Amino acid sequence: MKISTYILICSFCILMGCGQTNFSKTENGLIIDFPDQKSGGTGKKLALEVVSPKIIKVAFSTTDSALNIPSLVVDDKTAPPVAFSVAEDQDKIELTTDSLLVSVELPSGTVCFYDLENRLLLSAAGNEFVSFEKECTGKQTHIRQDFKWQPDEALYGLGQHRHGHLNLRGVKVDLIQDNTEVSVPFLLSTRGYGLLWDNYSQTVFNDSADSSYIWSDIGDKIQYYFIKGTTFDDIIAQNRKLTGEAPMYPLWALGYMQSRNRYRSEAELTGVVRKQREQKIPLDAIILDYYHWGDQGFGSFVFDEKDFPDPEKMIRDLHQKYHCKLLVSVWPSLTPGIRNWNLFDREGYLLDVMAGFHTQVYDAFNPAAGKLYYELIKEAYLKKGVDGWWFDATEPENQEGFYRSKCHLGTTAKYLNLYSYFDMKNVYERQTAETGKRMFILTRSGFSGQQKFGTTVWSGDIESTFDELKLQIPAGLNFCMSALPYWTTDIGGYKGGNPADPAYQELFTRWFQYGTFCPIFRAHGRRFPGDRSGANEIWSYGREKQKILTDYITFRYRLLPYIYSLSSLVTFEGYTLMRALPFDFAADSRVHNITDQFMFGNDLMVCPVTDAGARERQVYLPKGTRWFDFWTGIQYDGGQEIMAEAPLQIIPLFIRAGSILLMGPEIQYSAEAPADPVELRIFPGSNASFTLYEDETDNFNYLNGQCQRITFRYNDQGKKVTIGEAEGSYPGNIKERTFRIILAGNNGESLQQTVSYLGKEITVQL
After folding, report:
1. What is the pLDDT of residues 512-539, one digit of tens each?
2. Which of 305, 462, 475, 669 is least surrounded by Cβ atoms within 10 Å, i.e. has the fewest?
3. Active-site residue 395, yes or no?
4. Is 461 a catalytic residue?
């Protein structure tokens, strides 16, 4: 059928059955009015907005006013106008950019997304608006959008959930925040698109044989963003353009953090750090958990005078004597009757929600309450020298009470999944504006856009079992596929574990090996025996295990040049550090459902051991490249399964051919010495490149260009390494440095050369 293209200045009408479908072109898209097919009266309205050539905002509503309600997490108003065209005929209206085509079928309203080769990417079919009324919410509307996924399509994301799946096809996921469950309404598809569902209430994703949909409890409209991309990295980068870029972390945050439930006194905490240094176990931060305020109540924001008599001196000693940072546990809830509770209560800044430990939750949605919260913790902690935050229970606890409450924005049920987002916003924006320093925040909940507040989400109070370890790997991978890049677990699990028990020692060791390759590296847990506060330090697990664990911490520190360089890509290019295999091998359908292997960066494949007593494990090597066993140098063709040896001291690691892995010197903390010399471990078989990134490590001067990049290129045919000219500079950057080039071979054999570098391009013949 011939399609006529119009320059649409005013509304056009198309006669369709018993009613008329009217549409008009706007500055950045079009609006279509669909009549009610039964009555011919007012029906639904559809707005298509071209955010970029690859991003289309889709909104359905029953009123004009709802279409104009701004998103709380997406900033889509700053983009420049985008060229597009609109065409119509009797059966459809089409909107085309230079990257995709969106077709709206008439009169059904089905929205189909195609690439420019006319390949169907996604079809959004029927939708529903169902009115309801509850005493706690008033009159509201359930919304539902049906989708048709392609048979060979794999879907990922939606946050961190313990269902054990990587690919979400055939899975139902309840998107509501809870301890151990983090809900982020973003999907990635192997057909080359992402879908950001813009709703904050309780939501359900369901994909079954007869019904595939996304349903939300409360919505003024159905709204989502369709993002077309060539790779998962491309799609996630565009997501972060919408929701916010992830800032650089301070370098120390990528080192090792020691924690347990809990350090009971200044002497105990500083004693652990002192012993860590004496034992030569690298460390960058220690974490002080709850009840450091003694019996003064949650939200008192104090150090107990008996247990922590001089917190300023304690922190000063940690910094100056031990080169160690301190994080403190802070909760969003306050014990009724204490001074700070009275301050919040007097101003009406509390929600009618009682959480754990008989505490009341503050209204993080209220900017004035957020300002008071920040001022109190600044006075209590920042001014004493505390370096980072652990914001616990930010779901917040007690979802049933939270649902029934009212907040600054209205009925809380409508904003149910956003509490952590606003809690982090309240602190991050104020602290960075006042200090000009980077921040590290650890928290238990998250949502789309929260990455811009410097947060790492950890997976909550999980069990200390091998079965739980199995669940954590795909949970973390899907979380990172939801466009939030920083995630971690309580290494060893939170609930239980006796360090003297050989069976638990094995679990802790295997979990620790996995944790070495998580974006943030932190041990924590409620160990036994003891009153919920058993020892959890490296030496607690026996001499043999201490040696293994220390070796992995040392390995993590040697990888810091590699990790920090990749973290710069997270900030500048929307990159993802911990990568499910479909990131890099989407064309290999065999990787779509692999839950227990992942990439750490583009080149290093991590294969955790998740079974008690296992001393080998099956590994699939993705096709399209050759692979090196990191430990032995033995090479394998991709596209096959192998049985990898895994004695207790080994986690199977594989490097793909055509890789450059940077490794620095052994250090005890991240700021101990510059990364010099640096090893360039080259894995031949294909050309390779990698860019070393460095800056001042703790401020935002990198945003003004105060950083340095050095690019390494390996030519496989000529066996040449080119070290490019240093680009950029920053105060304190190394002027003279040494690079040790190691060309890997079979069975661990390697060719080595050492070169001096003065910032100018040099080429080395191997």
Report:
1. 999 999 999 999 999 998 777 899 999 9
2. 305
3. yes
4. yes
